[in-house]
Structure formats: structure tokens, C-alpha cells
């Protein structure tokens, strides 16, 4: 219920076609979302053209496939993250047009045709961080941004990141995935003048404590343009990166 | 040394006004920054018109005052964070035009005259989070954005945040400071469609473990548009927020 | 041995039908529970009509089935928590009247016929928290309270919880299950005027540290009507909730 | 704005004394609290007769005294927690009728005259836990319950708690404050049939880690009627205890 | 109330000099300790001749002096641990016969004249661990054992501990205090055939985390004759060591 | 090389049958153990009659069986801890006289015939702690002490531990195994006058953090006669308990 | 591109055989490594004769075998660490000359013929630490140093380490692998006058927290010649040890 | 007692000027250090010409001054670390030739005249890490190495470290001090071919947890030539660095 529909309702009361009691009941019964008090993700998604997202971990292949199909039927783009092989098989059987990205553990279905807006650079420190980086890249692409990938550019071989500095500097926002000591976002943060979203990965052993070491390193970054998301949360990084990149390239 | 100056140097060699040995020495001697390999913060600051920043914690009042004065002399805006009373006194004695913001523990000197670009909303959960929120707000303002403040809007009284939803929704980016359980960024993330930068504060006692509880809560946010900075890092949040807000409002 | 039976015993000594030595021996031999010094759960259970409870984790299906049968034979209600499929099969083979609740991993046998007393609202933030929420709901129902379920009402979509506010407010006590950032209990605590029992769940990944993030968030709740139980302890929350709800509805 | 006032407003529209536009504006302008969407603590406090509460830590004596005076003027009961000597002096100078409880670090002003409802037993393990126990006791008393104190009843001398078992068993809810190993709530939980609210205290040294050991112990209690609040949170325990005790003794 | 006094009471009932009601009341009124259900520390102390102990931390000098005096008046030995200078002054003013041990932060009053029983060796790794070692040594001596001190025998200079091996081997139990890496108990455990009680100290910096590193090291000792007490708990180690040493030398 | 053999060597030098150079070489070559500087476990074991011990975790069944057989051949008692079913089968095939204790995950071979010396009471809080308690009990028995078992005597039902107080009090040392909140050792420590060795078990879930909660609780015990070993270390507790119990009953 | 090749390029410009534009492009295109700004591991490896290293964990047997073969073809020595049985089979099928070291989980291919330089002593505390010690030993040997092994020399039996002191003292650097309490490096550090590299292993249970206890112990070593690497990082320890040992024995 | 003195003693026995009994007693009485079983730091120091070191933290100014004077009298170099202003004053009053290094919190006395051997490069990330870096530099210089300082070369401005790469590469060993994210050692490790000793500093706030974040980052370094010492342990890093640098430059 937006101001317009509220006015209509009150006009009906004024006209006498609705008693105050009926109007009061209708106001009480309306879900909050209709009053604009809050918007459900589903509606926002449909309006904005952003893809629907399914977090497949903890769901059976059949469940994911069913949800995926239902969403696909609405004509929007669909993304399933953390999808294993069995899930991919189930989804692709149901929706042959969907694409499985094994390294990113993602399944995508593109039904929209908008040109990309904004540029997101996705970096990862080592090849082991690649699945998380790919989750971020695939997500950002499906969400409608131009993505450049810069993989295996860890800080122990600085020339690798320095060599790609120019391209990275053209991005509107940079996503940096790194495990172990998690140093790459600080280095990148010093090289670029745009926001850097750091994704700690659970890559490492021993005192990496499943990504906690990288997480702490990133939170303590000496580069003030670095913000951090949860360990292995490539999707979340791409979601925010898309919001930023679109801002830079509003039509 | 950019491509142009490199061509000039090579042309001199071609012309014979520079021997290969001289050119080689010149290439070797030039600091990397001049080759564009990296840019020192100082230079970037001067060029971009962003303020100079002094982290006053761990510096004597005299040291901070001297650095502040030196920076002020270059004509740029200057910001000192984590400045106590004694430091403020020392700085204002040296630079009477500077302004002390006690609640933010910040000192600012504005010498530029550009109109604000972009809109940053700064929220805090309780009045105890106010110093960090003010550090963020003061920083974002000096960095040249329009800032709206929404304080004491914690989740235990939802009406407070809901009542200000409209204004917050007009911002390009939202900074949310919260201690204790750190729940506010998730709630705000669900209400707005722009990036939310969460700042855990060290407010709380017992099992808050000096902000670690809030930090963990924010990293695990169920809203995908939330990224996080270090505990009490209002400055860093504002730095990144400025980068985002400017992106939305490039001239 | 309560005051009455003690008086009887002493009266026998007075009458001479019992020598002091015999009385002394009888006093020494009696189990403490009979003296009222402490009550074993079993006896309390029988007297109070509360169900017998079996924690099935770590027990073989045969062991659980045997205990379940023995308890069932006494005519009381019986609850088995953390029961897997094999355990459920074994129990239902032995006691066909028992009911298996797969999502709650619980098995119940209802033999009493008392009307429900008190109202417990059970909320969960996301569908992944559902097993713990169902453990709480099934427990509270078998313990004799009226239970309303409010699932998938996480803080990233406030309208969902706000829409059900009225029903929740009618409960005598609210159980809130949430993983990830664990913010829901604080929000609910601000909406209702009754005790809120928060159950952190191990739902999440990375920096959720198996529920520790949610646990810390709940302990630091800014709502003073929130108390907390162990991670995934839906049973314990329901046990205490039942005690509170019965208090409000003593016959 | 409750249903009644909403009906009045709609009736005015029906009568034509209010145009739909005016009614719409009035509905939009009203704070959410008036619509019943959420209730601010202040209003709830006034209506319910519960005391106003000031968390004095981090406030200057003058600030606390001013807030205290303002609240006192409304005629309600007032409680200030975590108040040091200087704060107490400032408050008592302003409001001579207020009472300072040094061991509880609390200041109370009683202006209501209702008889106590419900019975809260407050226990503490050692004399060092007394300040937190007293904070709980003073709070529960000012909130209008009957409080019995059972101090220095730690588990290393079981006879002490056993000797007071009868009285404790008459309470509607038991608050147990303990530091060090935090074992007392489990023992008490086994002795009583009512809810036990455990308050870990920061008492201890070395591996007590400022109360974390006691907190973990209480969360892992083998007694299912134990719920837990934050370390040293005597106030929160009393707040919830009051809600429970009142439930048992509604007039 | 022991079996004898119980028989007397029952005999009175038999004789008719006590009604059953009176006997019942007397049984109910008697503290549990008198029934032998539990013994209060105080009574056990008096009977066993073990000293009374006051933990002075958190008590005012006046409080400690008063308790000390009251205990001294009963003729037993008295020990105050964690006593600062002011407390020592207050106690010695009240009880001039008491002795202050500054390095151990202890005050002792010896009033008994029994010969020492058993032999406790107290070791410490470095001179910084000395206060805790002395607390243990002073305690064990006042509790009536023969104590030998072996200080500054850390593992980085093995010859030091090896040189004193013979003496240490004659002890009935060995207390080992160590901070930093906490390795000494394992080494000593391998050299002796008696129980080793390890006391982690808070000595160290950085990753010692206030004794947590030493504590973990000791808990993981590869010598199976090592048990551990809390960080800095020299008193507790000496208490248990005394129980063991006395066992070996019962009169 | 003990004093006697050293004198013999020096006498040879005196007699001229050994040159100083030869003697010097011999002194340098002798292993330290021969000088009595240190004793290898093996030798100490043989002399003392204590069983040989094999930690079977991480060894193949064949390896454990081979070591077990080799040890058995020397005529001593042998103990294998943490032995799974396959290991038990392999050992019993090789040494049919060995006994497998499945609940303790231990295999024992008794070849000595000495009467038990000393009394060790082994307690556990719940039935889930039984494997660790049995490891302790089996170990202490094979090591030659009299063991009494007191299982399922957790603090939530105090009458259970109180009922067995008399027997427990007759032990020379008490081993207490408990998971979850780990409160039982403190309670037992207050009931008995002998050393209590606390064994935290990894029993529990959620915030038990695999036994860390119980470990911290035990380290912070308010009973000064409690010392602690590593989580699940029933063997170590029994080893030290045997040393203590033997001390009390030296022949 | 070293100074010589740079001079050549500039001379070409001087001679006119290269235009400034061509030279500029060539300078821009050259990878940074050729300019000496940074060196890729691969090139450094080839020049230095150090082996190529493959971290096989997380790679399929086929992937590791392919990389191994490609490296082997260049004629250098090759090392694969963390290689399981399947990987070893795949590699040895491809490169029959490679050697599988099962206990070290390593595969080596030696193609160089240089004599060893420098002496590295590798110690481990217990037999369970052997896999990590062997990884270190195999690595150091393939990297061209002389390695002596000293295994099972833990601190609970000091004679074992003391007996081998002389040989260990001849090494240029000592690697010490230990789990549980991690005390061995401190003891060794006190016995030798050369750098000690400590490798905490994840050996242990309970409060060893997967090697964290050993790690903390080593970081707090009281021997100042001890530095530490990550838990289970035998490879890294050997890498640094090789650098040190070669330093002592440069040709 | 070295081999020579042992031979002398045995020769005396041969000559009959010493009986076997006397020789035996003398051998038994001699401290182990004299037999070469172990060497005390003091003796090793005197022989090696390495300075004596006093850890002044926890010592009174008078104590430190006295120890310093006693050591100085032996003619060796002396170093006091963690010395505050008062300690420096006390030492310099006693030994006017000593030098106070306030930023390093160190006092040195140089009495030897040997030329430096080996080259140690000391780096620090920010100016706040300078005290620890200076402690390392001062220590390494007094220990007799050539030291080059490279301060404020943190990773957020890569050009700074790249610009000094050549000089750093000439060192035999590099010490890198860094707080916050602790990323610098990894970057430096990739730039140089010598051992890197990483010193985490306690510089930072919030989630730096007093240096724990930097420590974890360094332990997880992706550069295999990085080893780590305790937080703020500049002295230990310099001690090991000296051992390595001397190895490269043995006379």
C-alpha cells in the first residue's frame, strides 16, 4: 500500500462506500510489505531485474531443482550457489538452458538481455582460492556487471599483481579473495583508488584456523579502502560489488 | 614517469642528447612511484583533493600539531583522528582555524570549497556508539559528502529505525555503527538497496569481548549488502563510503 | 521420607515398636530422595506428569528403543530427542503408537490427556534453523503447552516478523531460534513484553564458528528480557518455556 | 494510535471534517509507536509502572543526575545501575529521597506503592559475587517482586545450599550468580522445579578469563531449566525474573 | 550430629523425654553439617589442624585484618594470600606475631607446633615465576610439610635442573611453576617418579596470552604424572601437595 | 653408571689397568641413562612392576599387536589404550590371555600377582562420560590399586553423589570425569578430604567446544584439592592417582 | 631484463634500429620479472638449482602427475609434498625414476648431482611427529643439504636428547618437530648455539587444539634462538633451514 | 670441565695424588655445565664475546643497575631491554659510558672492538612498529652485525619497499616487524632469497587483538622463507638473525 492506494482507500471512506470499521480492518489486515514498511526480497528482485538466488547447501538436489524451476518460470535470471554435482544434474535435467560452473559450484540461468553496467575486477591470491573467486565472478556477471579475472596474483610474487595493475585500476570496485595470511587486499588497496571488498577464504592449514587468520588480517588492513565479508562469502562480495559498480554506471 | 615522459626520454637517446648509459641510470634511479608502479598516499592526496589524515593515537600532542601544521601549509583539508584534549589544544594553538570535535575525538581543517558529492547516512545503535559514528560522519563530511545522522536507532526499538527509513533510503551508502550484539546492520541491510558498511564498536561488557561479538555478528549478516570494517574503525568506513558515494555522483 | 513419614517412624520409636538402633539404621539406609533432600528426575517426572525424555544421540537404536519401551510401560508421555532414522524405526517397531517427527529428529508418545496450559510462540530466523525450532515446538507441545510456530522471520526482512507481531504478543513466553548473526531475539525482545528464550543454532559458515557468533550476539542482546541456552538446545529452551507458560496458566 | 484512535480518525474522514489527504498525512506523520507497530521503552515503562532504568557506566555524574531527576519528576520509580560513588553523590544531592546501594552499585527511587507480586530467590556462590547478586536483588525489588537472598552457597560446601533448599523452592524463579567454575546453577537447577536464570560473574583469575569459564559452564548446564544472561548482567536477570514472577502472581 | 548423637536423640524419644514432634523439629533444624551430610570448611579446619585461609584480593585491609584476627583467636594457624602492602600493615598491626612474606604476597601466623610431615619440592622456571612459587612454598610450609625450593631451573639451561635432580627425587610430590612455554613440568615429570603439580604462571608477553600458553602446554604434557591447576594458583597446588605428602607420612 | 661403577672405573685408573684417556673416553661414551642422569621409561617400568603402556591411536592393529606381544614376552603387565575393535581382535589373536574392555577402549594383560595397594574412587557425571571413566578405572586396576566405581552421579541430581559419599570418602584419591559444565569435581572436592583429579571429557555439544567448557570449569574450581588433566585423559588421571594411592599404602 | 640487456635496447635506439615508440612498447610489454622488479619462483628455481615444489593437497593425482612431469622435463629436481597414495601411483607411473616416501607423504625426483652443502639436524619429540619430521628431512636432502635424523627424543626422557647432543651440535641449523606441549625446541635451543626452527605438529588430543598448544609454547620459548613456522609445516622449516645451512657452507 | 680438565683430574688419580673416592666426589659435585653436559648462558656469553642481556621488565631500576654494573665489570658488552626512563637513569648514573636508546627502550654498553660480521636488514611496516624494530636493530648491532634500517615500508604503499629492494637484497637475513595485518613479511619473503624473521607487533586496535592478527598472518605466510617469533620480540629476532649473519661471514 503506497500513498496512492492509501488515498484511494480514504476516499472510499469519504464517499461512504467503505465504513471506518471496514477501512480499519483493511489497514490492519494488509501485509506490511504492501504498506511499504518493508519489501520482501522476492518483490525487490522482480522489480530490479536482479537474479533470484538459491543457497543450495543443505537442500536436496530435488528441492533445489524445484525452486530453481519455479523461479525460472517467472522469466528472471536465476543463480544457485554452493551446488554440488548431484544438484547440478537435477537442475540441468529440469532446466536444460541452465549452465553449471563446477569450479564456482554455481548454476546460472540467464534470461535477461541487458548490457553489462559497471566493471568489477575479481582477484585471487592462489589457485586454491579460485572456487570462491569464481563464485564471486559468476555472481557479478549474472548480476549484470563486466568482470575481469586476475587469478594467482599472491603477494609472494609481487610482479604478478603489478603486471596487471593497469587493468585492475579501471574497475569500479575490486573483489580480492585470499586465504593463508590474507595480505593481498592490503596490497591491492594501496594500488587502486576504488573500494576493495576482501573475501577471506578457508584455504590454508594449521594456524590458518579455517580462514580466521585471513579474516583477521583483512580486518586489520592498513589500506582504508578495504571492507570485509565472511569467510568464503564470494556471493556476498559480488552482491555488494554489483551495487557499487552499478552506481558508477547508472544509465 | 608515464608513457609520455618515457617517450621523451627515449627520444633524447635517439637524438643523442642522452647516452644509453645516462638513460639507463635515469630509469634505474627514478622512484617507482614516478613510473606509476605505485602512488604514494601523499601525492594521491594532493592530486585528489582528499584531506590529509593523521592517526593521532600514539603521537605526542607536539608531534601531531607539527604534522598538522605542515600539512595545513600545503592548502589541503586536514583530519586528525583519535585526538585527545591535549592534542586538540596543541593543534588549535598552532592552527586556530582548525575545529575540534570532542565527541568524535577528531580535529578538522577545511580549506577546500567544493560542494558535497554523494550522500552518506551514518547510523548508530545506541548513544554509546556515538563517538565512532561521529568519527565516521566528520570524516565523510570533510571528505566532501553530504552526511545525514540517524543515532540511537537500535533494534530493541524497531520503530525508531523504521521511522527514518525514507531518509536513509535516499543515501548512496549507509554506515552502521553498533556494539553489543551488532544486529543493526542486518536490519538496515534488509531495509535499503544500497551498500551497508558495518562498524562494530567496542561498546558492551562481559561476553561482548570488546567488540568481538558485534564483529562476528556483522560478518555473519544474513543481508548480502553488508561489508564490515575493523572494530571502532569509523574512519575506514567513511573512507570507503566516500569512494562509493562519489562514484554515484561524479560530476 | 517426608515430615509425615518421619513422624510415623518416630512415633514407632515412642511406642517401642521400633528400637532407637532400628530407627537409626532405617534413617541411614533410606535413599536421600526419600528424605526429600533431592528428587530424582524419574520420580519427579512421574508425579508431575511431565514426559520422560531420552537423549538418543550416542545411544544405539536398540538401546533407545528399550528405554523408550520401558518408560512407555509406566503410562507417561515419552520424548526422544536427537533420534536418527534408524532409531525412529527401532522405536516405532517396539511402540507403534509413537510418532516420528523427522525434521525435529524427535519421537513422541502421548499417553496423557490433559488440555494444554499456557502459550509458547516458537520463532526461527531461517528455514535452516527449522530442525531446532521444531525440536523446541514438539517438546513444548508434548509437555502440555499450546504452541504457535512463526518460521522464516529473520531480520533481513522485518515485515515478516512485524506481520506476525500480534499473535506472538499473545504468547506467555517466546522461543527464538537463529543462527548466523543471531539478531532475531533482540528484535523480538523489543516487540514483546514477555520473556524471550534465545536458542543460537549452528547454522552458518566461516566466521559463524558453528554457532558461536550467534551465541555471543544473543548474550549481548540489548533487550533485557532475553536469556540464552546452549547452541542448538531447542529441548532446553522448551523445557524452561513450559515451566514459565504453566506458571501463567496454573489451573 | 490504537484501534480506537484509528477508528476516530477514519470517522472524521467519513464525517468530512478531515479530508483523505489530511488523514493520509496524519497517518504518515504519526510515529510508528502510536500505531502500535512498536512501543518505545519509555511509554511502556510509564504504562506498566515498571521503573525507569539508567545505565550509569560511561555517563558523567552530572548527566546521570540530570536524567534521574527528569525521570523522577514523572512520578515513576527510578533505577540507576553501575553507579559509582561520585554518581551517587550527584544523584542524592539532586533527589534526596533516592537511596544508594553501594554494594550493588545501584541507586533507587521508589515512588510507587504497589504490593510485591511474585517471589524471586537470588543466590550467589561466593562473597565476591555479591555485587552482581545485589544488583539483581535490588532491581527485582524495585520492579515489585518479593526477593529472598541466599548468599555464599557455593558448591564446594553443599550443606549450605541444601540447608536453604526449602525456602528457595518456594520462589517462582531463581537467579543464581556465580563466577569461577559457574557450577552453582546446575546444582540449583536440579534442586528446584522452577526456571533458573544463571548470571556468570567476572569473579576469578587466570583461566576464568573474566567470566568466560563460568559462562561456558552455565551454557552447558545439565539441568534443562537453566537459561543464561551475559557476564555480570544482574540487571537483565532480574528484569526477566520479574516478568516470570509476575506471571505467576497476576492479580 | 554423628551416629552417636542421633542414637541419643532417638533414645530420648524412646524414653519419652522428647516427643516425636520435638525430635522431628530438631532433626529438621540441625544444619546439614551436623548430620554428616556435609562438613563446613571451618569445622574441618579446626579438627584437622590445617590453617585457616583468607583470599585477601578484593577485600579491604581492614576486612582482612578483622577476619585474620578472629581466626587467630581460635588458636589455629592462619594464612592470607594475595595480600598487598597495605593489607600486611593492617594485619601486622592487629596481630604482631604474624609474618609478612612480600615476595609471596602472603601473611602467615603459626600457632601450632607439630613437626613437618612429608616433603614437597617447589620448582620455578625463572625468577619472574618466584612470587607464585613462594606462595606455594609458604603455603605448604604453614600446612605442615617440609619444603625444598629449586628456583630458576628453566629448560633453556638443562644443567640447572639436572644438578638438583637428586634432592628433587626425594620429595613426595613436586610443584612446578612456569610461565612462557610452560615446558618445565614435562621435563621434571620425566625425571621423578612422584606426582607433579604444574602451576602455569602469567609470566610472559605477546602470545603467552597471560599464561594461557603455559596452561595449554602443561595440560598436554607428555609425562603422565603431571596434573595442572589454574594460572597463578600457587595456593591450590600447595593445598593438594600437602594432602599427598601427608598421605606418604601418616604418623 | 652409578657411584659404585664409577668408583670401579676410577680404581682401574688408580691401578693403572686403564689409562686416563681410556677412562675419559668411557665416561664420554656411556649413555646418560647408565649414569643415572635419567631413566628410560622401559627400565623404570621393569623395575617398578608398573605395566607397559601402548597408546594405540594412530597405530595399525598389526603394529599394536606386535608391540603388545613383545612387551608381554617380558612377563610384565601390559595396557593398550584407545584401541578400536580391529586392534583388539589383532591383539587377542596374538595374546589370547589379554582382555578387551570395549567401553574403555582398552586391552589389558595381567601377568603379575601382587595384591592391590591403595584405593582409587572413579566417578563420572553421566553415562556418556563412562568410556573415559572406564579407561581410568581399568588403568588404575591394572596398575595395582583397588578401584570403586561411582557412575552417573552428576550434579543435577545431588542425592546420587550424596548417597555414595561414605564409600567415596574411604578412597585415597578420587578421579572425577565430567563433560558439559564440568561441575562435579568442585562438588566432590568439597565432600572429601583427599586429592581430586578432574578429567574433563569431550561430552557435550554447542558451547561445550569439545570439552573446553568442562576444562575451564575444572581449572577454576573453588575446591582447592582439585587438579586437572587434559580432556579425555583418563589414563593420565589414573597414572597419577596410582602414584598417590600407593604412597598412602606403602608396604 | 638486467642492466646489460637494458643497455642493449637503449643502444639500439641510439643506433636508430629501434624507434622510441618500439622501445617504449618493448619496455611496457616485458614482464616485471625481466626487469628485476620481482622474480618468479620458477625462474629463481631454474637459476639456483633448487627443486621445483608441488603442494599436492587439493590437486587430483592426474593434475599433480602432469605438473610433476612438466617440471621433470626441465631437468631440475622435483618435490611433491602432501601426496597421498593415489597421487604417488600416478606420479611414479609417469616418472618411474621418482621416489615415493610414504611416511613423509612426499615424492622426490633427483636429477642434479651436486654434493650436499651444510648440515641440518632434524629432531622430533615422538613417533607421531615423524611424518612432519620426514617431510622436513626429505625436503632438506633434496634441496642439497646433509641431514641427520634424531627421532623420538621428547622431553619426558631427557637422556635421549642428551645422548645425541654432540651430533646435533655439529649441525648448522636444527629443525625440531613436536606436538602436545611443544617443549622440545626450548630444551634444544638451550643445548645448541645455532638457529633452531620449531615446527609445531597437530599431534595430540583434547586441549592440544590441533597443534595450537604446541604453537603457543614454541612462540613463548625462553631460548632466544628459536623461530617458529606454521603447524605441520615441515616443508617451510626445511626451506629456511636450507638457506641458512648453505650460508654456512658457500663454496 | 672440558675434556682437558677431565684428563687432568684422571691423571691425578693415575698419579695417586687423588684417590678414586676424591675424584668421584669431585665429579659428582661439579656442576653439569663444567662437564659440558650443558653450558650456562653466562659462560657461553663470556667465551663467545656475545653481550650479556638483561630483561629489565619486572625489575626495579636499582636491580637492573646493579646487574648491569656487575656484568660491565667483566669487560663484556651489555644490553638491557624493555628499560623505562627511570631504569635508564639509574643505569647511566652507575655506568656513564652506557647509552640509552629511548625509542628502542634499550641500554647498551659497548666494550668490545670487533668489526661487524654479517649484514642484517631491519624493516618495519609503520612508524608505530619502530620501537620493536629499533630493539632488533640495536640488539643486532651490539651483537656485532652490520645493520641497515628500512622503516615505514608497509604494504599499502608498495613503491616504498620496492624502492629499497636492492639494499635489502644484500642482507644475509631480514627482520620484518609489522602489526595490524602483518602482511609485510610475505611480500619481503617473495622479494629476497635469504631467511626472513617476522616479528608481529602489538600495534593496532580492535580485531588486531594485541598482535594476534599479525602473528597468525605471519605464521600463514605463503613465502616459505619466513619464520616467526613472539609478538613484540625484537630481541629474539635479532639474536637468531645474528647467528645466521655470522654464519655467512665466519672469519
TrEMBL record, chains A, B, C, D, E, F, G, H:
It comes from the Bacteria. This is PurE domain-containing protein. GO terms for molecular function: hydrolase activity. It comes from Edaphobacter aggregans. InterPro entries: P2CMN_synthase_LarB (IPR039476), PurE_dom (IPR000031). SMART domains: AIRC. It holds the Pfam family AIRC. Residues 118-250 form the PurE domain. One of its GO terms (biological process) is 'de novo' IMP biosynthetic process.
